[in-house]
Amino acid sequence: MVIRGRVQEGVVVLDNGIRLPEGQVVTVLAPEASRAGTQIGSLPSHSVLDIPPVSVGAVLQPVTSDDDLLGEMLEDRL
């Protein structure tokens, strides 16, 4: 569930009067703070695009619509 809100006097106030049950565990993500020049903690900002591609190896055989790859893996034929 995503609920937006604002920090007012050090407290997160949720938009549209939304209230969560007392004791509800939440995670607050503040993506706009890094754009404003405020760094959250000591971690640099990053993106999924920063992760280099990974090779899973060569294709052992071409895959066709008649293949039963799961059956072959279960029978240890690959």
Detailed description of the structure:
- The chain is mostly loops.
- Helices cover 14% and strands 10% of the residues.
- A two-stranded antiparallel sheet has the order 1-2.
- Strand 1 and strand 2 form a beta hairpin.
- The longest helix is centred in the last third of the chain and has 6 residues, at 69-74.
- The model has no long low-confidence stretch (mean pLDDT 78).
Overall average pLDDT: 78
Strand order of the largest sheet: 1-2
Proportion of residues in β-strands: 5-15%
Span of the ends, CA to CA? 42 Å
Low-pLDDT segments, ≥5 res: none
Number of helices: 2
Count of strand segments: 2
Helix content: 10-25%
Element-by-element helix/strand order? EEHH
The helix/strand class is little secondary structure
Could you say which overall geometry the principal axes of the C-alpha atoms support? elongated
What summary fits the major beta sheet?
2 strands, antiparallel
* Rg calculated over all Cα atoms: 24 Å
Salient structural properties:
two-stranded antiparallel ribbon, little secondary structure, 2 strands, 78 residues, elongated, 10% strand
List the SSEs and their pairings.
Elements: E1 5-8, E2 11-14, H1 31-35, H2 69-74
Antiparallel strand pairs: 1-2
Quick rundown:
The chain is mostly loops and 78 residues long. Helices cover 14% and strands 10% of the residues.
